[in-house]
């Protein structure tokens, strides 16, 4: 019976992979614009029926106290639409990025603000760290780095569904540079990238149970400290990059200058302070375009926070601020 169950699970996974590949083939036939529109419309329409929509609404209300309910629901619908568009755009990841920095005035789907920082990172012969967030189509920065031969390894969390994870990894592998799955032991692989003067890109806006406490949208949140630890160890530049979804299925990538991270009394980078500064940058991005962020993620988990906040002795800041050099 155990062997039959294992065989049935494998057959089911293979069948699901076939279904997903067929769906992506259909989306490729539609083209990037129409498939993005379709994915956005589907999730925006279905979102009120999804149980996790309650999480999104609760998060928005807590982040923006006093906001009118109609505006809260507008932001939530926009977030679902963005997620649907992003999911449909996976079928086009290999061709979605078409910006040419040698010919920046040429018509393109993507524009880049701060391309000089990408170039500087490529030429400085030092390791570097790039943080980002689940905004617009968050896969584009890694594709941009690959397009301009910036030695970058993107740290990713695989989707929970094995079939979806398999197809997404296949697509990412064809469009990006190095990939490192966020799992036990990944820190050693990430350290190896930096030791050879490579660059790490990582999304930092999700809950991390063993993280450090930082303020985010007026509430304490647990955040993965690994980029702060690497910044402290390697004394390397740390940049933020965000994607903004523009009208007519277009995008803008914005890369910040290197951050001037806070330091402790010994002159070394303060890990918790560094993560608080990076998170403050992300908060500014979210406040700029709240309808493009992943509100349905359980970013704040009060039951896990009280002991962590007490241990950190943290006063939650209300106004995000960062200093760049």
Care to give the gist of this entry?
The protein is an alpha/beta fold and 325 residues long.
Helix and strand string, N-terminal first? Answer: HHHHHEHEHEHEHEEEHEEHH
> Low-confidence segments, ≥5 residues, pLDDT <50?
315-325
| Strands in their spatial order, largest beta sheet | 1-9-8-2-5-3-4
Number of helices: 12
**Which percent range fits the helix content?**
40-55%
Return Rg in Å.
Answer: 20 Å
> Outline, from the CA principal axes?
globular
Question: Would you mind describing this structure in some detail?
Answer:
The protein is of the alpha/beta class and 325 residues long. It contains 12 helices and 9 strands. It has helices at residues 2-30, 32-46, 53-63, 69-89, 93-96, 115-123, 140-147, 162-175, 186-195, 226-234, 271-288, 302-312, and strands at residues 110-113, 128-132, 152-156, 178-181, 199-203, 212-216, 219-223, 238-246, 250-255. Strands 1-9-8-2-5-3-4 form a 7-stranded mixed β-sheet, with helices on both faces. It has a two-stranded antiparallel sheet with strand order 6-7. β8 and β9 form a beta hairpin. α1 crosses α8 (162-175), α3 (53-63) packs across α4 (69-89) and α10 (226-234) crosses α11.
